[in-house]
Structures are given as C-alpha cells and as structure tokens.
Input
Amino acid sequence: MDLKSYLNLFALLENPPTTHEENRAFGLSHQALKQKPVKALMAWEDSYVSTLPQPSLGERFSSYLYGTTLILGVLAFILGVLSGLALLSYSGHEPVNVIYFIAMVVFFPLLTMFLTLIAMMRTKRNRSLLVHISPAFWMEKIFSLLPNQTQKDIKELKINPLLLNWIMIKRSQILALLFSLGLFIALISIVVTKDIAFAWSTTLHITPEAFHAFLNTLALPWRELFPDAVPSIELIKHSQYFRLGDSLSKTMIDNASELGEWWKFLACATFFYAIFLRFLLFLLANFGLNRAIEKSTLTLPGATKLLREMNEPIIRTHANNEESVFVPSKENYEQLVHTLDASYDMVQGWAIGKENLVVLNDSMQIITPEFFEVGGSKSLEEDNEILAKSHGEVLFFVKGWEPPTMDFIDYIKELSLKVDKIIVVPVGTAKNNYKIDTSAVDVWDRKLSQLHEPKVWLKR
Amino acid sequence: MSNHTHSHPKFAVVGHPNKGKSSIVSALSMDDSVQISDTPGTTTKKRSFPLSVDGKIVYELFDTPGFQRARRVLAWLEAHEVSADKKQEVVQAFIDTHKEDERFRDEIELLEPIMNGAGIIYVVDASKPYGKEYEAEMEVLRWTGQPSMALINKIGESDYSKEWKKALEQYFKMVRTFNPMQVDKAQHISILESMAQLKEEWIAPVKSSIKLLESYYDQMIDKSAYLITRLVYESLTFVDKLKFNTEEASEEDRKKIEKNYKEKLRGFEKRTQEKIEHIWNHDHLEIEENILTFDGMDLFSEETASIFGLTRKEMMITGITSGAVTGAGIDLLFAGHTLLLGGAIGAVVGGVGAYFGFDELSEIKVLGQNLGKRFLQMGPMENRNFPYILLGRNLYYTSVISHKSHAKREMIHINMDSTFKDKWLDDDLKKSLEKYHKLFRSGKEVDAEALKAYEALIKETLKKLIDSQEK
Output
C-alpha cells in the first residue's frame, strides 16, 4: 500500500470503471479479503488501474514527489556541506569552537525531532502549525511557484490533511537526514584535508570538569564502543579557549597535537544525533504515512460504497425489463344519453340477474316487456339464444364498478347487428342505490370509444 | 406439455382486469415502475419480477393481464371434457392452438407462466361485490391443476370480504387478505410464508427468500444510514469561499456567500434524499420541489428548527454534559487533584458555547487580506443545532420513504410535528451524537472508525424508527 496506489484508487473511485455486478463478482472471487478492506480496495485498484488514462494520477504525483524530493534533497545536502564547512572554517590563527558544531549536530536535531514528534501526534489537524513551519513545507511552496503542468493538476487534487501532514513530516525527515549527512561529510573532509585545532569557548562560567561530565553524558550511546570518541578531562582543559588577548594560551600551544582529537567526538555526535536518530524518526514517519494511507483509503469518497458492493450480495426484486408504456385513450365517447326514455323494447343486463333488472327498471321508472341476463355465469349458447331474440331499442345495464372485458365487447358487437339501438347504462351497487362514480363511467366511456359502433350509446 | 424444469418457485398473479394485480406485484417486488391505472388493459404482457441474489433467481413473480374472454376459454376447455388427470393437457392444448389468436392474447399471456409451473395467486377486489362472472375464470384456473391461493385486495372503502371469502374458498385452498397500499416488511414476509405453503417443495426456497428479503431490508437501512452519516459529516465540514476584489467585503458579498453556502447544504440534502429514494426502490416518486423542502419548511427555517432541532435549553444541557465529560477526563488524568474543576469548567464552557452557538450558522471570515487574493469563507458549520435538524429531517424522510408502498402512485404527504423528535432522540443519544458533531466541527481529520461509529448510531436509530412504525 503506497501513495501511488492510494491516488490511483482515488482517481478510479471518482469515475468507477465497473458496475455493481462487476464489483460483486470481484468480491466473490476475492472472498479471502472480505475482512481486509484496505487490501480488498488495493486488489481492486490493481485490477482496474490500467483503465486510467496514462500516466495515471498516482504515477504523476509520485514522479512529482520524487522529483521535488530529489531536488530539495540535493539542496539540503549541499546546504549541509556548506554549513559544515562554515562551522569548521579554520584560518590557522584561532581554533574552531566545537560548541557551534555541537549545537548544530546535537541540540538543533534534538529540538526539531521533538517538534516532529509533537507534529506526529497532531497530524489529524487541518492546519498543523508544526508542519507549516517545517522548512520542507516552505521550500516546496517556493518550488511550486515555478510553472509546471503537474503542479497545476496536483493543486486541484484534494488530499486529506492527515495524509498531507504525514507526507510533509516524512519529507522533512529525508531533508534533515540529507542535511546532516552533508554536515558529516564536511566534517570528515575537513578533518582529512586540514589540520584543525578544536577548542571550546563559552561566555558561561563552565568548568572543564562540568563540561566533561556533560560531554560524557552526550557520549553515552557510544562511549563503551568507542572510548576514544569521548573527550578526556585533559583534552577539555587543554582546549579551553578565551578570545581575550591576541595570542593563544601557552597550554594550548603546548598541546596543539591533541586539539585535533575532538573530531572523533564530533563525528560520533553527528552520526548518532543528527543521522541515526533522524533515521529512526524517518522510519517512524514512513510507518505513520503508511498507516495514514491505510486510514485515508477507507475514508476516500466511494470506498465504502465499493466495499459494500463487493461484500454484500446483490438482491434484486424488480423486473429485468422495461414495461411498454400504456397510453390510455383520450377519446371521449360522443354518443351519450343523459336522460332515459320511458320505455324500451327490451332490457338486458351484463352479469346482472333478472330480479335485479326488474328492480333497476322500477327505480328508473322504465317500462319494458322483456328482461334478459347475459354474460356472467350464462353460457355462450344462452347468450346466443338471447341475441336471436333481440330487436328494437335495448337498454343494457352493466355493473359500472366492473371494467368492461372483451367478452362484453364481443357480445355488444353481435347485439348491434341485431338491434336498432343499444344504450349502455353503468349502474352502481345496491348498497349505493345503484349510483355510480363518474370515474367508473369514464372507464366505460373510454372502452366504448374504441368500439366505433354507431348503434351503441352510453348513459352518463 | 407443462414445463417444470426450472427449480425456483414461480407465482403468477392473475385475476379479473383492474383488480389490483399490478399493485400487488408492485408491492411484493418493491418495484414502483409497474404501471398501475384504473383503465383496464394497462398490463398487456406478462412481466417477470424475480427475487434474485447475485443473479441467481430465488423465486419469480409474474404480473399478468386480466382475463378478457374467460367464458370462451372455459367453453373451449369444456368442449374437450376429459378426466381430471388430462385437464392440464387440455389447457396446454388451448395455449398451443390459440398462440397466434389475437382474441386470446391476454389469456395466453396469463396461462403460460402457470403452465410453466407457476403457482396461482388469484386477486380480487374486496371493495367491490362478488359476481358470478368471476366463476368462469376461477374454473379455468382450476383446469390448470396448479397450486393456488386467493388474495383479497382491500384497497377501497367498502368491504365485501366476507362474501368474497365464501366464494373463493370454493376454489382455493388458501384465502388471504392483503392491502398492497399499506404493505410493510412484516406483511410482505407473511404473504411470502403463505405462498410457500402452496407446494411442499417451495417451502425451503421461499423461506430462504424470506431471509434474503430480511437482509435486503437491512441493506437498505445500512445504505440509508451511510448516506445520512455522509450528509451530516459533509454538511458540518463544508467550507465555501467567495473571492472579492474590493478593499473590504461588501454586505452584498457577505449575503452572497451566505446564500451560496445555504444553497450548497440544501443541495447536499436533496441529493441524499434522491439517493435514499433510489435505495428504497422509489425511483418513480412523484414529489414536488416543495415536498423536498418539507412542504415549504426550508432546511434553515425557524419552523424546521422548532420541529427537528433541539430547544436552546436542550442544546445547553447537551453542551454542559458533553463539556463536563471532556473536563472529567482531565480530572481523571490528574487523579482528582484538580478538585473536579475540569468537569465544572468543561460544563460551563460547553453550556455557554451551546447558548451562543444556537442561532449562528457559521462565522463569515475574511481571508488572504495580506496576500492580495481576498476571499470570504463560510464554514465549517458552527451552529450546534444544525446537525440535529439535518438528522431529524433525514431520518424522518427515510422512515416515510421506507414505509411507502411501491404500489402507491400518489404524492407523499408529510405530516409531522415536534413529537417526532421524541421518537428518536433521547438524552443518551444526544450525548453520543454531540461527541461526533463536535469532532466534525473541529476541522480535524475524521478517521474511518469515527465515521463508522457515528454510522452505527444512525443505523440503530433508523432501525428503531422504522420498526416502531411497523408495530
């Protein structure tokens, strides 16, 4: 799991190249990763990274990061060498004060490492001051002012603060490490190529004994391994230097050959405090960054959805195909009757019994000599018998609440061949005193309008 | 010959035209794309609604056109009077003979799945009286010899269930009442259990379908909880910026950024609600814009705040308790040597913060003055009441959507009052939620675990809400 994969996953999730079904198929074929979401996401990224436009976002960002880190690293190394040369510059008239160098290779790294540790604990913060005061941050800011297409792309990329902070912390450790290496190389080079007299000098009233004790403590990590790299009390006494006066003290001149012995201590101090401890911090930053990438992977927009699609069975309950759209007829039936006549040649009822037809006639004060039930439970033969008897004007009662079926339409068509006029009367239930809703009549209206039969009329 | 090669159970929903077959299919398949209308003949082709898991069909439901010429079909069948064991063959012969006959198109469409092994679910409308004209179609179904049940669809005001039941029991071994307009998970499962009883070999697959369906409901709740979590998180952490070129930001600029900020948050909510509709398979909801803003109750209106948000007093109590908890942590760290001052100070800070952060949404900051690129910034959300309002609205919305039957085609009516808050928000939940709201507002990176924990709280709340409505 690295930054490149993370960014490629980010780009893939922005425009997922897969369907829900494909993701589920992927989940089923990677069952072992069900409990390892980050690995599952990475495996998915690995499978589909080729669908990204090349070079991928991850590749572009990684190469940008590598490029800037390389340039900044070279600069830091050169700065380290130059700082080392400056701190160790020796004219031959005055000895080199080791205090400056100790400050640079011990105290400054310890202070910055302490701040880094605090910054590591505050990486969740959006605006971490400690990260923002890092030279790496500002060097990169200056660097980003240079025109570059990749930088433009990266500025548009919203990396979450946790990750950004860790990237910056890790980068700072690399730069500090290279700076320290520069110092170390400058020290070794000068020691090899020059004869330097080291001394120590401070305004503070520090006795050689106290200074010896202090240096002895600093040398704790290596004093057992390299006892020569711990300055002796004699060396400290001999190399104490006071700038007052034009000439060096006699003791110093007498022990000039010993003064160069300080380099061992300085080299060990540089190696341990500025390089070794920084390297440990770099490893810690690397670990922190990897953890941050893992954590951030799970908060990437779309990551949870993707994991869900991989791990949850696809349950579908709906139709696979689209239904053809039904457009109801908007035609209105024009052959309408609003008032019934007093008498008709016959009354027929579609699935309405004879007794009910009599009641209906009575309630509408209609006189008819004949009543017939058709449709419903009657057989087709019985319907045909009634058809044969049909004549004149027929009042045709239908159950208004029942929709007209094609069975009814077939009968009406047959009937229209035998009679002069058919008046279809949709009626309501007895419970409702045979009154019928307009919406129900509308259904009959629409059906009859498809019939186009001039003899058929509708009572509204 | 009938084809029984497919092992999964199949059910054909059949009946007279316009009796609610499509409504029942729509409700049972949770598919709101099914066309439902009062015009007979809306369904012209049989349509399959499989319940599938990872592409494997567990059971299949068929929506079919209604009987149009049942008497003619029955007459044809009866003309071939045979012994009971040959009746199925006669029905198949009818299908084979009339396959190209336009007159029996609907009958063929509805008989085909039955002859392919589907169980029969015969639907009648109990709001309309029983009539003898139904007997022909029930008799045709009896000829098919397939296991069958009747569903009395109770969708209207009048109730003729009793007379229907008497008649249906003559033809079907099982008669159930079902209202597709008010179907919930329990009713859905109960109908499936009845369907399982139609044939012994269907019991196991339908039971596993029921389990699947239960996990499907869980999935929908999960997904909704995830969306609501993201909505709250994104709304609280959202920061909007507006560039301005003058020396000082004008009042107009300030109003503009506030307007933009609110619009963006409204947009987040709207998109979330659309996704929730999709999760619950309500892609065809007819919702007017004002419904989304809760019948004119805008996300930022006082009315919304009064219904969904906490009162100033409740907000202060929440602030005090969460502040006290933080302070108590400090006391604990110093083993009580702080004389419990940490808790007390925390409570005061929390309470005062809540009191003053009650009305304000977020401070409008002017940034970048020294660098020449001046802009106004609004967000992250500072209003402590806002997350409760947002949560309340969207929990409510989800619970309404989750209970909306897929058979319903009318607009959603949202009737709510301040008692809704009491249904989901108690003191313990307030305390737990406040911890996360504070984290979201802080601007710190929120890790996946925290979001997961918040989502779990939302899921539990949503589940309780949905379950309580089903009882």
Observations:
- The longest helix of chain A spans residues 262-299.
- Chain A has 19 helices and nine strands.
